[in-house]
Amino acid sequence: MSARPLPAAAPAGASLVTLLDLEPLDRDLFRATTVFDDPYPLYGGQVAAQALVAAGRTVRAGRLPHSMHGYFLRSGDAARPTLFRVDRDRDGRSFSARRVVAVQDGEVVFSMSASFHDPEDGLDRQVDPAPEVPAPATLPPLAIPRLFSFEARLPPQPHDGPAWPTRFWARCTERLPADDVLHAAVLTYLSDIMSGLSPLAADGYRPSTSLDHAVWFHRAARLDDWVLVDLVPKSTGGGRGWYTGTLSSRDGVLRASIAQESLFRRKRQPFENVKGRSR
């Protein structure tokens, strides 16, 4: 991995639980009130996680997210509150569908569709095993950028020389309540950091702004315990790149899968921030 520095960590003493605790303003209308100075545009994982929390507040208790699909539309500002408006598309016998828009200064910065499902019994199989890596306690720390209340460890990498790791352990350092929707939101918050396209950077081309992001929640996960994030590059072309990824618990169980498309253009400056929102 290159020694190029990553952006600074979140402000000291910041709380992820507080960041995700939205203020209800009206039916299906919420506001994120935790603001802070950040030299970079609003982190996409933050607005996606908050949107999932907003959607979950409108779904009956016990119905859990199984997928979310989001689009990053404009740069946001971490120093400004964000409004979240939820549309209740459908409530069926087993599933609920929601749409959420995140608004700053009267403009939509992020939109999301999410689906929730009542837990039920079913055949539980996992085809591909989790990557074999050393336990997090045996590995050096990784300075994970921008995230509130997270620590990380760096295992051996599957690719030589990428600027950012594509495989790492991470966990929330706050003790999280037994709330599966909150844990899914914390997983979403984590899932947009780094880039699975880093190994494909060449000839001045590199990944930058996230365009759209999807998460599938296969099994409940506790994010105050270690999860292994494994990002896999898939394709670049036409100024965009696409990668997939998995998040597995320490016992090797697949907890969630992700897919993301990002801009993939020639580098315009000596250094641009991870997951910046400029296009």
Summarize the structure.
This protein has 3 helices and 13 strands. The protein is mostly beta strands.
Tally of distinct domains: 1
Q: What order do the SSEs take from the amino end to the carboxyl end, as H and E?
A: HEEHEEEEEEEHEEEE
| Major sheet attributes | 13 strands, antiparallel
Helical amount: 10-25%
Query: What percent of residues are in strands?
Result: 35-45%
Low-confidence stretches: 1-9, 270-274
Q: Can you list the strand order of the major beta sheet?
A: 1-2-4-5-6-3-10-13-12-11-9-8-7
Query: What is the strand tally?
Result: 13
CATH topology tier name:
Porin
Approximate shape: globular
- Specify the CATH architecture: Beta Barrel
CATH class: Mainly Beta
Query: What is the helix tally?
Result: 3
Q: Strand pairing plus helix content: what structural class?
A: mainly beta
* Superfamily (CATH H level) name: Acyl-CoA thioesterase, double hotdog domain
Mean pLDDT: 91
Radius of gyration: 18 Å
End-to-end Cα distance, whole Å, is: 26 Å
